[in-house]
Design goal:
52% of the residues lie in helices and 0% in strands. The radius of gyration is 29 Å and the shape is rod-shaped. The protein is mostly helical and 110 residues long. It has a domain of 54 residues. InterPro entries: SecG.
Length: 110
């Protein structure tokens, strides 16, 4: 299993977790934190739930960005030629050997 495949699996997992955390939040201040009692005067840790969801969203988003950038580095070959793993293209290799010189063909009509 290549390093790129490992990064791809991690990216998919982090993206799924990020979707779940964002879907749990309510844009109007409710969400999971309002399910435990609702009011701002609640002492039982509702504010901490909102803080946890907010921090986990930022952490997962940052982790996703870092994983994407690191996976881009693993696509590069060891010799520095970028090869697309998705397209399967072959890198063009230039040859430094000159082509052989062909002698002129004899033309019997001259």
């Amino acid at each position: 299993m290549s390093t790129f495949t490992i990064f791809l699996a991690l990216i998919i997992i982090v993206a799924f977790l990020l979707i779940v955390v964002i879907m749990v939040q309510n844009p109007k201040g409710g969400g999971l934190s309002s399910a435990f009692g609702g009011g701002a005067n609640q002492i039982g840790g509702v504010q901490k739930t909102s803080d946890f969801l907010d921090k986990s969203t930022w952490t997962l988003a940052t982790l996703l960005l870092v994983l994407i950038l690191l996976s881009n580095v693993t696509i590069m070959d060891g010799n520095g030629i970028g090869e697309s793993k998705i397209m399967g293209s072959e890198p063009e290799v230039e040859s430094n050997v000159p082509a052989p010189i062909q002698p002129p063909a004899d033309n019997p009509q001259e």
